Here is the input.
Amino acid sequence: MKASVFLDRDGVINHDLSDYVRTLEDWEPIDGAFGALARLTRAGHPLVVVTNQSAVARGYTSKKVVEEIHRKMIQRAGKVGAEINAVYYCPHAPGTECDCRKPKTGMVDRARDELSLPPGGYLIGDAASDMELGRRAGLLTVMVLTGRGRSELDRIRDRRKTMPWKIAADLIQAVDIILDNEDTGGRET
Here is the structure.
């Protein structure tokens, strides 16, 4: 089995909104995102979305709406040949004692267990919490500069946190990086 690719949702696959993606109408994919995911699918990589959705705990949206957004995302991805194997989300607010809110590894651990995924793989995200999740879960991290990526990268640098393995302009370039690494058998760390 090829290496799994874990992806954040808002700011990576779809546009992020400062006041949260609250409705199905708010959800808008980033141009080229599904085509990039289709390339990973064709190359044999399992795709798993792992996303914090604290808008649920804050009362801005409901689990039902979040799950409708995920169904729409999976359906739209499938139309271009991208297979999202599963979506895991944390509905809890920051500071909640749960094991699923990034940077905790609960969503990745659950996906590995439920989908029988091998250790290792990649994480593509636009936030410091994504990069920390990747580090904790033993994943090669690719930070995209879409969404919150630019400001979050500055935050990582300012706080002298562990830098991502690679930095990409967007999901398309992140996929290029992963496929190039796999083609060369690099699996560099």
In short: The first strand starts at residue 5 and ends at 7. The chain is about 35% helix and 15% strand.
